[in-house]
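User: Second chain of the day. Same drill as before.
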Amino acid sequence: MGKGRQAGAPHPLCVRYNHDVAVQNRIRKVQKRDRSLVPFDQGRIVHAILRAARSVGGFALDLLPGVNDRLFAYGDDEHIAEFLSDVVITVLNRDPRHWVANFPPTIEEIQDTVLHVLRSFGFVTVADAYECWRWGKYWVRVGAITLDQFVGNGYPSPFHDEILAWNRDHGCDTVDGLNAIVRSGRLPDLVAAATERYERSVDEAAEEILRRIERGDDLRMIWISGPSSSGKTTTTVKLTARLGKEGLQFLMLNLDDYFWPLVEHPTDWLNDRNFETPEALDIQAINRHLRALLEGETVEKPIYSFKEGRHVGTKPVRLKKGHILLLDCLHGLYPPLTAGIERECMFRLYIEAANMLYEGDGASERLTQFTDVRLLRRMLRDVQHRNHPPLQTLLHWHYVRSGELFSIIPLMGLADHVVNGGMPFDLPVLKPFFVPDGIWPRPEEVAPYDSFLDARIRYRRITNLLSQVAGLTLWEAEDHGLIPGDHLVREFIGGSTLRIPHNE
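Assistant: Same format as last time:
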């Protein structure tokens, strides 16, 4: 007899995981980015998933009773990663094209599937870490950023460590500590200290810009970029006011006018559209117009009607001699926007609403998600100024995160200056606008979308967080004596004494 398989050895086309359960795998090869073929290696999938989980403190950070708690019966993080890798293989094998040796799945297809599996089992934080790492490595490969500018999973970083240290020094690094400050009447002192820190950071940005001009740099363009609802518009207003006092003049270009017509934005299963990706904008037209303006030419800037969902005309625009182009844009760090434009003529400011806050008394070492604060900020702004129902913002947020993790957060290393638009008192100030009688969606409103895990998980997490936070009253939140009229948070809660263009 010929040499056969050793007794008990797994079949080469099967994958074996815990409890002696096998998953059939007909995929023998993987297509690399250069189109070469290499042997399929499940271990690489396990390693990538495990690295993402460990980078955020393990899968337990995403443990959700009733969603994925039964998976933890598989044991430690390594065994959970092995199980998830088996599911990835199962999904990949559903496409019979992948069974053909010369047409196997690509690395990108495998990474897409990993993300799909992680999110399908409710591992949202791990998926975000995996996605940020994935796109960061992509931007390194194409030369958009250097390894020194690579931000890994997006956190932690020296920027976040500095915020956590400040919060610890001021007793607001935990929910319990923040509640004690609110209940003891010490919030005005925290507001004043945090506001001074933010204003000083804007001062430093203005000083950096002026230094570059003084040393002879041909600075022609300023970008204010960062994730949704991080405070870009208020920061833009404050920065230009400082620079205006020094004699600088600006041409502000509204890049929202470059959105593709609505008919070119397909709707999804929720009848929603993805406006959060840079491809929602006519990137080539923006780049062409930016380069023309810097050459002193006049361009016909489109005029976009959001009411009609299309371009309704154009307006001639020209950059006057000595003026600086000013651009407030989510995707200002996205390399195709500035292709062909010299790095030396640009200043890039990045703003993120990052506030490092531990749950409870901090003993669990679980950080709350500061992205949830941005969701609350945007939900409140959408209700007040865009007539969007709160539930719509919640259901749309997965598009927001996907765009951030592709073309915003992984590129933050390109910024010349970083501002923290997050405030340690955000949650107490926001709470009265949401619960108990505010705009936070009721359980019965969310129930029809229970199978949409992204919204379900965020809803449950934020509901739980709001229940733990000691909130102000609406009267206190609206009091300009506590929160000044020109404060960044007023861009979202209302009552701003500044002119906020997108709120008009």
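The longest strand covers residues 310-318.

User: Great, on to the next one.
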